Amino acid sequence: MSDAVPVTVLGLGEMGGALAAAFVAAGRPTTVWNRTAARADALVELGAVRAGSVSEAVGASPLVVVCLLDYAVAREALKPAAGRLRGRTVVNLTNGTPTQAAQMAAWVAEQGGEYLDGGIMAVPTTVATPEAFILYSGEERVFETHRAALEELGAAKYLGSDIGLASLYDLALLSGMTLMFDGFHHAVAMATSAEQGSASGFTELLVPWLTNMARLLPAFAAEVDAERTSRTTPQLTQGLDVQVSGLLNIMNASRDAGVSTAPLEPAMAALEGLLETGHSEWSAPASVRQLKTT
Ligand code: FVH
Fold first, then answer.
1. Best substitution site from 10, 33, 66, 67 to test ligand 1's pocket, by max atoms within 8 Å of Cβ?
2. Whose CA is nearest to atom 29 of ligand 1?
């Protein structure tokens, strides 16, 4: 018999299924529930217990991990079990916004439960591997109580007591990823407009290039932090004229190659915005400040 704290997983989609499998593989008593009950079959074969209802699932464990489509679905799913949340901890790993996290935390607290919000920085195949990390926010005492279980899913990174932090960082990380993928698509569209070569061959060059450029980010970040704390650091700047001229070349070559410039237009507008506000140099703090509307 395992003496590990039992866990319940609500939601056995691609991600919820992977989370439940990780708990089972770690030897933790695991109860599972999913709207489409058949999605639990493989997990039951591995040793999980299938619950017939959300209420039964919540009642089975002090720790309830939720991974459903969105917060509206999570809230609807939890409703019938509201009376059983007292004294239990809900860890919601469903993708959502900081506002939704705060609303869910308040609702769980009204039911007498404790709440952590989370953001999964993994795909189903990397859950419980060294690549996976999961962001958490909420009361530190609650996080520490369940840290051992949460570490079974991937490195557990506690961000702070502000309940919205995990979802804010999750969405900000996904924003960085989204814009990188957009850049990849545009770069490949340009490169494959040439008769010779292939997307795969080009990507052999793109990956080391982007890896090298990503190494600059900590220095840019330090500059942004220095500005926020009124410290001074040497600025890593480039002339805005150099930036504009380079970007114009990219846009003109795109047009010549029959490739849309749409993904690049916001970048040009940002450079023009800096010029209009009197900047002559490009720097990370100026670019970050320019994006903030409040
Ligand atoms: N998959 C990924 O790579 C990403 C990685 C980062 C985190 N996301 C978020 O995880 C949440 C779940 O995503 P998922 O990949 O597991 O999604 P699906 O495989 O589509 O499973 C969806 C689950 O939600 C259930 N569900 C949907 N609608 C309802 C409803 N009206 N009532 C009850 N349950 C519902 C669905 O149940 P079923 O269709 O099997 O019956 C699945 O359990 C998500 O927030 C990602 O952004 C994943």
1. 67
2. 73
Same domain for 232 and 153, yes or no, is no
Q: Which residues of the chain have pLDDT under 70?
A: 1-2, 234
Residues 159 and 280 in one domain: no
pTM: 0.94
Same domain, 89 and 221: no
Same domain, 118 and 229: no
Phi then psi dihedrals of residue 191, to 5 deg: -65, -40
Residues 108, 85 contacting (CB under 8 angstroms): yes
Q: Which atom of ligand 1 lies nearest, measured to the CA of 17?
A: 16
Locate the ligand 1 atom nearest the alpha carbon of residue 93 and give its number: 10
Do 100 and 223 fall within a single domain? no
Q: Do 29 and 161 fall into the same domain? A: yes
Instruction: Residue 150: give the domain boundaries.
Output: 7-167
Q: To test ligand 1's pocket by mutation, which of 12, 35, 78 has the most ligand atoms within 8 angstroms of CB?
A: 35
Is the CB of 95 within 6 Å of ligand 1? yes
User: b or e along 145-162 (b: 16 or more beta carbons within 10 Å of the residue's beta carbon)?
Assistant: bbeebbebbbebbbbeee
Domain count across the chain: 2
Nearest to 170 by CA among 118, 101, 116, 102: 118
Query: Does some domain include residue 146?
Result: yes
Which of 167, 201, 232 terminates a domain? The answer is 167
Q: Supply the DSSP string of 62-113, one letter for each residue.
A: SEEEE--SSHHHHHHHHGGGGGG-TT-EEEE-S---HHHHHHHHHHHHHTT-
Domain boundary among 140, 167, 194: 167
**What is the SS3 assignment for 10?**
strand
**Looking at residue 1, what is its pLDDT?**
53
Asked if residue 187 is part of any domain, the answer here is: no
Per residue in 66-103, pLDDT (tens digit) is 999 999 999 999 999 999 999 999 999 999 999 999 99
